[in-house]
Design the sequence.
């Protein structure tokens, strides 16, 4: 007799709600098994038939790091489309490729770490290419569209599980694991949280990844905002995945905790559910968790909470129901979508009538990026490739297009008169078998090729200076000089790449020549008997022998053409990327020289900027300027089609382009209100404003109507294509408080729509905006408040090109003074400040304020209500120093000083002195010395 098959456990029953199934499975796991779930690489639980799982698959603009994939425009380029429908379709294509690639390679994960919703507050941020916009509304709209595409359309199961990066206020790479972003409450609520909040609230987000930096003195990986804000925005379980190595940083670089057991426990309690640390080796993290359990720093309930969140994601992905949605890879539809996205991302910044080009135009395409299709750190490997040169060949014919790269052609002569020599065939690629090609970033490490040598004639190398003295050297066959682990210099890389770029050098003046320093190792290039290498001693002094200057080649090509297209910009692996911020908005000197040479030889010069960042360029003498982010596999075809007028450009700038470095605040100044940052507050004249972009058609705006219906403001207007070509327009709606009681944005994007119109076609655009969108964070009461009064509604083609305006009067909540007599005053709730930083009140929660190093801190609290009167003030402080208080700008009324430093930064004491005040007054506080002010209290 056959024994009956035991019933499947409840967690295997697809008829039960996910929450019940998660609880059942969780109850079956041992403590050790739960502990194993906390590392990025979760081991299988074979006794329950549970497979291994890992968090993390990069998919920022296509599947990354897993070989060939469809490569779409960089994220900032997707942001420039201002087109949610397009971006959703890109997300769908990416998630389909994730599923298809996973079917043949189990290393491909379904928990995708994308998109990046950090706001592009500062254009020198090295990871500018990864975000969508400086504006939270546009960022959240694009991010929501991408996550919906990544999630898929199945009513129950998710195609992939998106994780947003990087929580929170992360806009600097310089010392990113130790710097603290000082974020006042208004900036926190009105700006940094906003992009995350709307995207999470839309329901297609599986989790977030905390950033490396600290916010208000506290590492993001122990941020109380995860519980106080993030997890309140949705009913779904959210999985918080640490950034790579960040858990160890809590002790090793930040010194925030004394032991890794304390740090791990604090992160887990704060809400981190999956620890990305030590690569595939989970033993260190699991040992720390066990140690924290043994010391009583964690409980079983803490583990259950984190494991439940991970299991919730795995159930949604269909793992326990055998669900495996068929994917699609490199389809004709994906290729067409990559081209469409590249076309829609192109922004026409200036056009004096030179564009579009006539079909019989003779074009010279010149510049260091003219025959390049650059990838970035989060790109997949190209299956298809289109450079500007190739696109123009295809569109205008090879007989009508000439090319000059503009690299300097040089030889490097040694002290004994020999030259650096690349042996014939040395740069040949390694043989490839099977599907796909080698990742270019991996070629740099090859040691199977002979190193460079010297001989009497040498090899002519292409030298490109990417700015700041950082240069690349390329052999005639196209391979870049690179340094492998053995220290030898070889021509072995398709492109600069890798986490540490091994293809960049610096020429350092030395006597009558130059030393050649390799930036990846910091060592100088030496010539030895067994080949050219880098070493700590024996540096060779080279003479730079120039065979041809790049500007001479550019001038020749330009002079013989009807129109010159100068393609300039950045290499995404050099002078601005993850781990490295930019230092200037200026184009590198070499590219400036090439642009001047082209313009001098032929005034009909088009500048095509292909770059991940805004640049400050003198566009005055140029008849036409375009910008596109690195546009992926179809970038060249897209650019050529726009230049030829096959497509009317309709991309719009997702961030302000400033005219000079002098317009920029310090990179670490996160106070966009006080420092007047982004289009929201910037009072200068930008080079090109937020939302700017021209077209080959002209559009008229009319019939503006705005009215309030309940809690909604309905705005309608018409847009008409007055041109003679079909084109897209991006209609933009902004608002401005006309009589604000506190500093408010000059204008703020409320809604936008990209619409295509045939010649003469007219369309009505309608936006319904919740009245809450007009509110601001009232620091006096710690909540949102809609201020009653007049608001201007501004409609147009950019934040500065406004065609229609009207004014609405909104009802709201009148201002009320701060009830300081009853409730006291939190120090960080100031209205204005100078010379201060917000720091952590305790390691777990709360804020305090301290003077910035070397400064006296000044704080202003407006409209403080002291009621019938107070006679004393109490301050809660730590550290040492002096707190001075004054009312309404009058002479100092109260001085409180610590007699001696407190035992530590979190050891607070209370100091009390007399202060006579009544009614509503402004309170000014000055902080002297390294004192931390947490709170003020008043008594009568």
Sequence:
């Amino acid at each position: 007799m056959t024994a009956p098959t035991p019933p499947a456990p409840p967690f295997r029953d697809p008829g039960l709600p996910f929450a019940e199934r998660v609880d059942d499975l969780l109850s079956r796991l041992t403590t050790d098994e739960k502990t194993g779930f906390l590392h990025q690489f979760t081991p299988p639980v074979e006794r329950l038939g549970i497979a291994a799982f890992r968090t993390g698959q990069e998919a920022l603009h296509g599947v990354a790091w897993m070989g060939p994939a469809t490569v779409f425009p960089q994220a900032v380029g997707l942001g420039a489309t201002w087109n949610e429908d397009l971006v959703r379709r890109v997300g769908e294509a990416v998630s389909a490729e994730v599923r298809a690639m996973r079917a043949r390679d189990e290393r491909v994960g379904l928990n995708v770490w994308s998109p990046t919703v950090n706001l592009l507050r500062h254009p020198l941020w090295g990871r500018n290419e990864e975000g969508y916009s400086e504006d939270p509304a546009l960022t959240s709209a694009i991010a929501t569209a991408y996550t919906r595409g990544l999630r898929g359309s199945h009513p129950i199961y998710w195609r992939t599980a998106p994780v947003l990066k990087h929580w929170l206020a992360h806009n600097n790479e310089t010392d990113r694991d130790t710097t603290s972003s000082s974020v006042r409450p208004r900036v926190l609520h009105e700006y940094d949280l906003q992009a995350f909040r709307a995207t999470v609230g839309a329901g297609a987000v599986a989790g977030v990844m905390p950033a490396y930096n600290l916010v208000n003195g506290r590492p993001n990986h122990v941020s109380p905002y995860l519980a106080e804000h993030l997890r309140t925005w949705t009913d779904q379980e959210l999985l918080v995945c640490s950034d790579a190595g960040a858990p160890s940083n809590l002790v090793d670089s930040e010194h925030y905790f004394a032991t890794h057991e304390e740090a791990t426990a604090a992160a887990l309690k704060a809400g981190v559910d999956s620890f990305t640390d030590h690569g595939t080796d989970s033993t260190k993290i699991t040992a720390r968790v066990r140690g924290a359990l043994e010391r009583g720093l964690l409980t079983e309930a803490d583990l259950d909470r984190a494991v439940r969140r991970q299991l919730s994601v795995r159930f949604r992905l269909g793992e326990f129901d055998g669900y495996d949605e068929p994917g699609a890879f490199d389809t004709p539809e994906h290729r067409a979508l990559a081209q469409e996205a590249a076309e829609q991302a192109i922004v026409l910044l200036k056009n004096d009538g030179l564009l579009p080009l006539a079909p019989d135009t003779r074009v010279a395409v010149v510049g260091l990026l003219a025959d390049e299709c650059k990838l970035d750190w989060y790109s997949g490997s190209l299956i298809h490739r289109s450079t500007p040169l190739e696109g123009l060949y295809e569109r205008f014919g090879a007989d009508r297009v000439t090319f000059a790269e503009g690299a300097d052609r040089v030889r490097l002569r040694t002290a004994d008169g020999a030259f650096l020599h690349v042996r014939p065939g040395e740069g040949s690629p390694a043989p490839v078998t099977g599907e796909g090609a080698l990742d270019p970033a991996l070629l740099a490490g090859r040691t199977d090729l002979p190193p460079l040598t010297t001989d009497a004639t040498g090899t002519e190398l292409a030298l490109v200076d990417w700015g700041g003295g950082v240069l690349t050297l390329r052999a005639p066959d196209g391979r870049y000089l690179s340094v492998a682990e053995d220290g030898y210099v070889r021509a072995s890389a398709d492109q600069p790449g890798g986490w540490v770029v091994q293809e960049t050098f610096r020429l350092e003046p030395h006597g009558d020549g130059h030393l050649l320093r390799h930036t990846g190792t910091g060592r100088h290039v030496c010539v030895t008997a067994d080949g050219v290498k880098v070493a700590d001693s024996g540096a060779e002094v080279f003479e730079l022998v120039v065979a041809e200057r790049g500007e001479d080649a550019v001038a020749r090509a330009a002079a013989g053409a009807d129109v010159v297209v100068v393609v300039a910009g950045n290499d995404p692996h050099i002078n601005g990327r993850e781990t490295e911020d930019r230092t200037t908005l200026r184009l590198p000197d070499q590219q400036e020289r090439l642009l001047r040479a082209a313009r001098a030889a032929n005034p009909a010069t088009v500048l095509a900027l292909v770059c991940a960042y805004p640049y400050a360029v003198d566009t005055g003498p140029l008849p036409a300027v375009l910008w596109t982010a690195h546009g992926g596999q179809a970038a060249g075809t897209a650019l050529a089609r726009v230049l030829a007028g096959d497509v009317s450009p309709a991309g719009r700038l997702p961030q302000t382009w400033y005219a000079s470095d002098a317009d920029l605040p310090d990179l670490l100044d996160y106070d966009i209100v006080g420092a007047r940052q982004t289009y929201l507050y910037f009072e200068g004249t930008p080079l090109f404003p937020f939302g700017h972009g021209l077209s080959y058609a002209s559009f008229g705006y009319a019939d503006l109507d705005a009215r309030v219906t309940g809690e909604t403001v309905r705005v309608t207007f018409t847009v008409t294509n007055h041109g003679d070509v079909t084109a897209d327009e991006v209609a933009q709606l902004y608002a401005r408080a006309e009589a604000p009681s506190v500093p408010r944005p000059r204008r703020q994007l409320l809604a936008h729509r990209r619409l295509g119109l045939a010649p003469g076609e007219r369309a009505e655009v309608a936006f319904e905006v919740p009245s809450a969108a007009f509110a601001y964070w009232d620091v006096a009461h710690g909540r949102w408040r809609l201020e009653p009064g007049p608001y201007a509604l501004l409609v147009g083609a950019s934040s500065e090109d406004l065609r229609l305006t009207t004014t609405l009067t909104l009802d709201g909540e009148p201002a009320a003074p701060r009830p300081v007599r009853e409730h006291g005053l939190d120090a960080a709730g100031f209205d204005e400040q100078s010379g201060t930083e917000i720091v952590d009140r305790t390691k777990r929660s709360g804020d305090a304020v301290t003077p910035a190093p070397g400064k006296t801190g000044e704080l202003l609290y407006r409209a403080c209500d002291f009621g019938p009167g107070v006679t004393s003030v109490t301050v809660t402080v730590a550290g040492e120093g002096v707190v001075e208080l004054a009312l309404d700008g009058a002479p100092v009324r109260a001085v409180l000083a610590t007699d001696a430093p407190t035992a530590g930064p979190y050891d607070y004491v209370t100091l009390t002195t007399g202060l006579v005040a009544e009614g509503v007054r402004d309170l000014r506080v000055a902080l002297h010395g390294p004192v931390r002010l947490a709170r003020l209290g008043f008594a009568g």
